[in-house]
Design goal:
The structure is a homodimer. By secondary structure, chain A is α+β, with helices and mostly antiparallel strands. The first copy, chain A, folds into 2 domains: 109 residues, Jelly Rolls (Sandwich), CATH 2.60.120; 92 residues, Arc Repressor Mutant, subunit A (Orthogonal Bundle), CATH 1.10.10. Chain A has 7 helices and 11 strands. In chain A, the strands form 3 sheets. In chain A, strands 1-8-3-6 form a 4-stranded antiparallel β-sheet. Chain A has a 4-stranded antiparallel β-sheet with strand order 2-7-4-5. In chain A, strands 9-11-10 form a 3-stranded antiparallel β-sheet, with helices on one face. In chain A, strand 10 and strand 11 form a beta hairpin. In chain A, helix 2 crosses helix 3, helix 4 crosses helix 6 and helix 4 runs antiparallel to helix 7. The longest helix of chain A is centred in the middle third of the chain and has 27 residues. The radius of gyration of chain A is 19 Å and the shape is globular. At the A-B interface, strand 5, helix 3, helix 5 and helix 7 of A face strand 5, helix 3, helix 5 and helix 7 of B. Chain B binds a DNA duplex through helix 6.
Chain lengths: 242, 242
Amino acid sequence: MTGERIHPSCDESFGQRIAQTLQLLQASLPVQRRMVHAGDKIYRVGQEFGSLHVVSTGMVKVVNLSADGREQVVALHFRGDWLGLEAIATGSYACDAVAMDTGEVWSVPYAQLLTAALSQPQLLRALHDAMSRQLARDHDSLQSLCALPTDARVASFLHYWADAMAKRGLRTDQISLHMTRAEIGNYLGMTLESVSRALSRLARCDIIRFLEKGRREIHIPRVEALDSFVRQAAALPAAISD
Amino acid sequence: MTGERIHPSCDESFGQRIAQTLQLLQASLPVQRRMVHAGDKIYRVGQEFGSLHVVSTGMVKVVNLSADGREQVVALHFRGDWLGLEAIATGSYACDAVAMDTGEVWSVPYAQLLTAALSQPQLLRALHDAMSRQLARDHDSLQSLCALPTDARVASFLHYWADAMAKRGLRTDQISLHMTRAEIGNYLGMTLESVSRALSRLARCDIIRFLEKGRREIHIPRVEALDSFVRQAAALPAAISD
DNA sequence: CGATCTATTGAGCCTATTCAACCGTCGTGG
DNA sequence: CCACGACGGTTGAATAGGCTCAATAGATCG
């Protein structure tokens, strides 16, 4: 293991684990690589389930479609994340998976993955870890939605994003959200105006800064500042600082 | 492979699948059965992960503990549901699992489960199905939280509960919530007063009825009524359709 | 019976939504 | 080239939905 560190708090080994998993997949299965661009769908709701997918590069949003046609972003995925897990039980995808960026997605037939997993326990471990992490992440999302006011929810979202980047060895002080305010709002259960206002307020407190005029590039001087902002908002449901 | 079918929407066979899974577990692993009563903890946050748990009878709530001590109910589990899945990746439980009722919980060491799964593919399938279902369920929770007003969220909650009972072959017209209004509110991201008001309104519309004076027994004449109530609230945040 | 817990309901307030106007950027086409 | 519209973002004013605070009542239990 090469000794390189970027972030103190998060484990550096996570990025390596991702790389290992991707290598393992490639070595032991006929993965089908696919280049995707923003807006491309990796799979669609209702489509028959056959394969799981792993994000190699790029970012993917998972959109739940309700019966009456409304859309709900329920998860975001980055390098190393698995897609389609929610379809295993039912046999058909319950969501759309949409690329938010140019990237590469690998697909592996679920049946073959299981077969390979019998002789490669690490594969099974990787799959279970991915599912487990997703469950834990969903719980955190739920808690944010239930317990935090809008501003803190946006802060928590940024923190999550920065954390996801840090875990993958990418720079965390400057993140570029490949989402519109409307998409962010949809994911966080609020309106696009509220997202905009929250971001403006965070910028006013100097917790974040906008780079360029196109305000999707966000500079985060200190990630801990986001954390403490969330923490404080959580403790006092209705406190207002000047 | 024995003849098995997966229904798209509302499978009658679900209850049978649960029974089969429990039998399978019992037959191929040293499950440790444990009787639990309301308030008992199956596992605690921070505790080292070693075993997964399956609800045999009774109901269990999973409570996420945030850094600052606030509690958040993130999931509810019934017969056949697996507990502790979110701990696989990290190696330690991230939540408390608390019995809401008298019941029985089976525990199986994860390592032994994996070993057994190598020779019993159905075991692995059952585990994956459970995780997959939980992920899909989490997505639905997220969507409810994000998109529905309080009344509809309560209605959706009751519908979910009734559905869970129905899938397990239990009576669905009369459900007994083993939760206080405060717990329900915590789970649904609203205050206990809002829960109370929502229930009162639903009762006023005759979508539900209270049995007895202790108002946790709820009679649901027509489950479809709950569904249509949710659907209508979802479609029009403020719009008007005859 | 008093003490405690849970639930219901009302009144006022506050947060986040709705509605609206405005600005900047980006393509497109006259 | 500029006019134009489409789109994404910001900000303000007014509204409303849900929260807070508070009072009341039933239930349970020692």
